[in-house]
Amino acid sequence: MSDKVIITCAVTGSIHTPTMSPHLPVTPDQIAEEALAAAEAGAAIVHLHARDPETGRPTPSPEVFMQFLPRIKQGCDAVINISTGGSHVMSLEERLAAAVRAEPEMTSLNMGSMNFNFAPVADRYADWTHEWERDYLRASSNAIFRNTFDDIEQIIRTLGDGFGTRFEFECYDVGHLYNLAHFLDRGLVRPPLFVQTIFGILGGIGADVDHLVHMRRTADKLFGDGYAWSVFAAGRHQMEFCTHGMLMGANVRVGLEDSLYIRRGELATSNAAQVRKIRRIVEEAGRSVATPAEAREMLGLKGGDRVAF
């Protein structure tokens, strides 16, 4: 177990909507400010989506991304990680567009198609800030988040082979680990792998500590010492699972993409608040927080001087 813990902060995502929290960053300025504050608080990696600045709806637009990516790069040394997950209503080409434009050090890469259902959240609200929100949420119950083997290979070849981008391999179930092993066996990806195991999404593996242990053991069997393990969980499970995982040797991910709360019943006022909380837990457990430079070395990244923004 490395003493160093990489903290990733997922700043806004594509699941939560403006009605759910006044603190969810929407505009490019807000996303940049939240990312910079999270980096100052201790996040070595910032994981980024974009939103329409008028409505808050998730957008794949490279033009919107480019309104905040340069500002974040100029304001901190954190690794900038662009989502290729986008949202369930985007095509693969749309999901890739910003990364193709920006040529980042890292992107996310979902390791399998799945049901990804966040429709039940819509039942918690009667009034909506924007008309699109309720229908967008409810539509997820009848959608498949597509990530076929051909899709995954296209992302690897386009971004990895094309730009030297490396990946946050997002694994929402045990089968996704085996999918990643398939690409490793074919030589399409190489160690060190950054394996992000995800719990508590309706359609993926549940937020149960036994599942956390099983995912860890399976990853050990498949990847040996050729990977860096990271953990996050959705909603109320966020801090509990990050803590369990960290005590087992994992890196961690927090942020308003994954949970809007800082503790039960209390909205987080910022991404940085969640980063500060998990940092305290990490340090009180006797581990230390990795700097961006250390994260780059651990994950074999190309460096912030080799991006296109």
TrEMBL record:
InterPro entries: Aldolase_TIM (IPR013785), BKACE (IPR008567). Coiled coil: none annotated. It comes from the Bacteria. One of its GO terms (molecular function) is 3-keto-5-aminohexanoate cleavage activity. Keywords: Metal-binding, Transferase, Zinc. It holds the Pfam family BKACE. Gene3D superfamilies: Aldolase class I (3.20.20.70). The keyword Transferase applies. Transmembrane segments: none annotated. Its cofactor is Zn(2+). PANTHER family: 3-KETO-5-AMINOHEXANOATE CLEAVAGE ENZYME, 3-KETO-5-AMINOHEXANOATE CLEAVAGE ENZYME-RELATED. This is 3-keto-5-aminohexanoate cleavage protein. It comes from Rhodosalinus halophilus. The lineage of its organism: Bacteria, Pseudomonadati, Pseudomonadota, Alphaproteobacteria, Rhodobacterales.
